[in-house]
Amino acid sequence: MSETVEPFIKSYYETLDKNRSNISVQFADDAHIVWNGNPLSGGVTLAQMYGTMPETRHELGSMDIHVHANSVIASVAGKVRVGSGRSSNLFGFHESLIIQNLNGLKFTSSTYRYIYKPRETAVLFG
User: Fold this and answer.
1) What domains are defined for the chain?
2) Could you report the per-residue pLDDT of 78-105, keeping only the tens digit for each?
3) pTM for the full model?
4) Terminal C-alpha separation, the chain
């Protein structure tokens, strides 16, 4: 199962950024979700919440995947741009995910958190 998890996770962030209305199909109906400290129940609720938010663009920086019994535990970190143009904001993010094969891969748990607001300029060491 671990071979198919990384593409599944990457497709989740693509869907989140480009086609939010379809995000619920990647979650179990009773998935436990905490988004920036706010508890949600299931992918439909998550899709509804994202439907009210500005657009996002996620850039994955790291992904750590561990198979445990009948599930996979994944930790993902990176940057996310929220909004567009001059009004956009760049944040770091971290998400912990539990994935199970329930007639196809599904997220059964997700904890998403903005972790910092990095400066947009690169530091060059010379």
Assistant:
1) 2-116 (3.10.450.50)
2) 999 999 888 788 899 999 999 999 989 9
3) 0.87
4) 43
